[in-house]
Structure formats: C-alpha cells, structure tokens
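As the next step, I selected for study one protein, both as residues and as discrete backbone shape codes, as given directly below:
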Amino acid sequence: MNKPEVIIIGAGPGGLSTARTLVESGLVNVTLIQREGVAQFLPGIVPTLLGLRPVSTYYHALALSGVNILKGEVIGLDMGRVHLADGTTLAADALIAAPGLATDTTAIPTGPQSFSVWELHGAAQARQAISSLSSGRLVVAIASLPYRCPPAPYGLAISLKALFQARGQAIDVVLVTPEERPLQALGPRASDFLESLTRTGHVALETGFQFDPPASKDGLLVATDGRHLSYDAGLFVPPHTCPTFLKALSDKGVMVKVDSEQRTVMEKLWVIGDVAGTPLPRAAGVAEAQGRTAAASVLATLGVAEPQQPFIPTPDCYIWTGQEQAARIQLRLPHGLPPTGKPDVLIDQPETVIFEEALNAQERWLEHVQS
C-alpha cells in the first residue's frame, strides 16, 4: 500500500520540526521545498551584526534522512497542489506551509546610512557600516508589528552600545518602537525588564513611534505624529508581510488564520510558524510546537494515526546585553494555549552562560538540518 504524500514548505524551525515528526512516524512520504535547498539560522542576525560570527556560519545545505529535499520557489497553492516558479506543479495529500514572514524592504529609507537588517544578507551588509562608524547616532528602528523574535532588537541596541563604549566611541544608540512599552503584549513584567536593560545599557528608547515611510529619508526617521530623529546609521527591522502565495488567506496581508490544529480554511492546508495567526510571539519554540501539532493533525486527518492534543510551546528568547552576557525571557503555558491559558513570563538576568548558549545555538540547529 502506498503511503500518503505530505509536502512541507520552508525549512525554518517549524518546517524542520514538522519534517522530523512525520519521518519518525514512518507513516507518510515527506517532501520539503526550500529555496536553493539551503536553511538559514535567522537568530544569527544579531551575532553577525556584532561581528561575533561570519554570516556564512548561519547558512547550511539541508540533508534530512527520510526527507526528499526539493529546491524551488513556491508561487501558488490550491487544494493539495503546490505551484513552483519553474512551472512545476506538485500534488500531495496534505500541505504544511512554514515559510515565515517576508520582510518589505521597500518601506524603509534607501541610502548609505540605512540598512534593512532582519535578514542575514542585510545584517552582513550593515556590519561594515557599524565597524566604520566612529561618532554620531545609531538607530535600531522597529518599523511595525508583528516582527520575528520580538526581544532581539533590544538586545542588538544594548550590545552595540556596549561595543561602542568598549572602543571608547561616543556614539548614541536609540531604539525606536511603535509600541508604547517594550513587548507590552507580554505584560508589565517583560516591559519593566526591557526598560531596565536599556536604561542601564545607556540606550535611549523612543516609544509609540509610528514610522511614516513617505516622510522619512536616508538619515532622518519621521513619525506620523511629527517627531523627527536623525541618524548616522539606521538599522531597520522592516515591516513584515505574508509571503505572496499565502496572501489570499491572510488578514490584512500579514497573518493567516488557523485553528488549534494549525488548519486553514483551504482544504488540505496547514500553516505554522511566524505567519500563523495566533496570539503567541513569533519565536522558534512556538514554531517547533506548531510543527508537531500540524504533523499530528495531518496524520490523524489522513487516517493513519490517532488524534492528539495540540503541543504546548516553551519558547525562550535571548537578549544580548554586551560584555559577553545575555539575558533570557521564557514563556510557559501551564494552563494551556491562549486565549484560554495566560502565559507565565520567566526572566533570567544577564549571565555569561546564557551568552554562550545563545552564541552556540547554531550548533544545535545544525543537528536539525543534517539529521
């Protein structure tokens, strides 16, 4: 008897988690589509910008036992079919999309002082500008919500300020966010913690800053309320958007609505990770749990396994703080998934051991892309 066919789109933490779960079941054939067949470790953006690791550290060819790796760019979906840019159409009994959110670099200023840094290649390009900056003001600007890895821009700003101080450079660092308080969706404890870290790290916070793209230009950031902020180097977390092939299913062009099993309104399609419309943060630990949930749901839907309850994520987010230290925010959901269960926010103060964990996290990632 032929096994059912399952196609996974994307090799981020969600896609890799899904692939592992399905392969371990031995009940389906698994194909994973990834552009160029290369996985990227996006948490490597911050260490790349800080000059701690070369950007090449965070790219690796996929080699997953039991998974057919297909190089390709997905341009469309319809019930059980995937359309690729080269004209190929693939059919499957179930599709699991884990493409992550795309970044819209057209919305930020262009010029020698402005850099879109929330992709690895952009971080590598900005690194040289950071190295050559000797005075003035550097801005880390969050253009809009949502975005990947919510605490990371704060850690980037704090670490860059520490780096400049260690070099004896009088460079002001400003963190710009549209939120009234840092990570306010996680509650006052997380906000208080990040405000304390930025204050002790001598990073200025500009909150409630609603970015006005038409009014802004290279070297000048403008808010919709008229505030102006000049900069000598601008590191932008650009607006995030839904990949083109999922936009028809998205809410306002960003998130795709899913149920508790990660199903969408399109038959045979599950969506996981950053693009899935849930109240959880855009974090690797969330995507991994959603991947396991979607895999279990697919197996049950195909009639080859018993249904399971959704897996509860345990996301950890590192916050780099400079001087070879990092802090950590952990979310735990002892009462179930939101909106029923309210998360507990656990905070680890900056330590060297956490910094080492964060710096070497790509070693654990490599185990997943070469299994």
